[in-house]
Every structure is written in C-alpha cells, then in structure tokens.
Amino acid sequence: MKEEVTLMIHLQELDTEIVALKREKIEIPIRIAELNDEFSRLTESLAHEQERAGILEKEKRSKETGLKEEEDRLLNSEKKLSEVKTNKEYQAAQKEIEEHRIQNSLLEEQILLVMDQLDALKTDIVQKEEELTRTTGVIKADIDTYTARALVIEDQVTQKEGVRAKLVKGLGTSYLSTYERLTRTFHDEPVLVKVRKGVCMGCFINLPPQFFNELLRDRDIKTCPNCARLIFLDEEPEKDSINGVPA
Ligand SMILES: [Zn+2]
User: Which of 93, 103, 118, 128 could form a disulfide with 81 if both were Cys (CB 3.0 to 4.6 A apart)?
Assistant: First the structure.
C-alpha cells in the first residue's frame, strides 16, 4: 500500500474521532441546561406548595377568629335569653341563638376542611424537600461530571488537531482537497472507504472489472464511479470469510 494511502486512512480515523468528540461536546450544554431546568422545576414546585400552605394557614387563622367572635355572640344571645320579658322577645332570642349555632358549626366544618388540606400539603412539602435534597446532590454531581468531560474533550480535540496538522503537511494535496470536499458533502460521514472483493464498501456496488484491476495494480486511492467516495483496496486478510479461506 502506498504511504499516502496509509496517511489518508490515518487522517480519516483522526477526523472521525474529532467529529465524535465535537458532537459529544455540543450535547453537553444541552444536558446541563436540562439538569438546571429539572432543579428549577423542583424548587418552583416546592415554593408553590409552601406559598399555598401559607395562604391556608392565614385562612385557618381568619376562620378561627371568626369562630371566636361567633362564640362570643352566641354567649351574648344566651345571656339575653335569660333576661327576656315577653314571649316575643324569647322567640327572637331563641332564633338568634339558633342562627349563631348554625354559623358556629359551619365555621368549625370549614376549619376542619382547611386543616385536612394543610395536613396533606405539609406531608407533600416534606416529601418534596427530601426529593429536592436528594436530587440536588445528584444534579450537582452530574453537572460537575459534564463540565469535567467538556474540558477533557477540549484537550483531546486540541491534541488530535495538532496531530492532524502535522499529518496533513506530510500529505500531498492530490487527495486532500477531494477528501475535504467530500467530507462536507457527506456531512462528516467517512468518505474514504475500502473495496472488498471488488465491492465499494460505501455504496456496495460491484466495481467494473477493468477498474478493479487498475486498483489492484496501482494500490492507490481512486474515486468510486458510482458514489464518488474515495476508495482503496482492503489489504487486510478477511476475518469473516467463508470456511476461513482468505479472500
Ligand atoms: Zn461507491
């Protein structure tokens, strides 16, 4: 195999690694934003429930004050009853007492209802606080891992790009410009592919016999007449050949 072919193969390996690292790095800020969103969701949900609990506490206190006032009114009415002089006054006082009692039991029911809601809410708040404590640790650790990974990727890309620059210097421009143009066309997918048993491993089409013979003779890089990828002869022995007979 010509040295230039080996260099081109190495170049593509490097580019594949660089592309994979860059793709991984692009995802990292997205993952970190998702984690921050999750944290915000939990914090906001907890804050919302705490706010609701505050409103219910206030409602409970206001109803308790109302009940206290209503109880005082009931006592007054009962006192009035003992001081009535006519039947008419007696009936009026009785009616007043009855109304206050109804009002009292209504307020008591409402207070119990608010207390039930508060109890359920407080249980929920405790659960959410625990979840937040737990999740915050996990989220923070994940963000740290992603941040560290991004730095490692940056280093690796710089290092690989350095190797690539040196490699490109040792390479003639003959294949390089075609290779780089094709890389853009094929959106960073491999454009330098093997030919195995006369078949282009990029498009899986049989090469014309004459063309294949030239490839065998020259041991150089050529352009696949079907898919336009750069092709070279696979000179490694077949690993998966039938009956272990090399191709
Ligand atoms: Zn092809």
Answer: 93
Q: Which residues surround ligand 1, an ion (CB under 5 A)?
A: 200, 202-203, 224, 226-227
Residue whose tokens read 């594949």: 16
d(CA 197, CA 242): 13
Query: How far, in Å, is the centroid of ligand 1 from the Cα of 211?
Result: 12
Looking at residue 100, its pLDDT comes to 94
Burial class from Cβ neighbours inside 10 Å (0-12, 13-18, 19+) for residue 104 reads middle
Distance 64 CA to ligand 1 centre (A): 84
Q: Which tens digits make up the pLDDT trace of 93-138?
A: 999 999 999 999 999 999 999 999 999 999 999 999 999 999 999 9
Domain ranges of the chain: 3-169, 173-240
Q: Give distance in angstroms: CA of 169 to centre of ligand 1.
A: 28
Residue 1's pLDDT is 67
Render 47-69 in DSSP notation, one character per residue.
HHHHHHHHHHHHHHHHHHHHHHH
Fold of the domain built from segment(s) 3-169:
Helix Hairpins (1.10.287)
How many angstroms separate the alpha carbon of residue 224 from the centre of ligand 1? 5
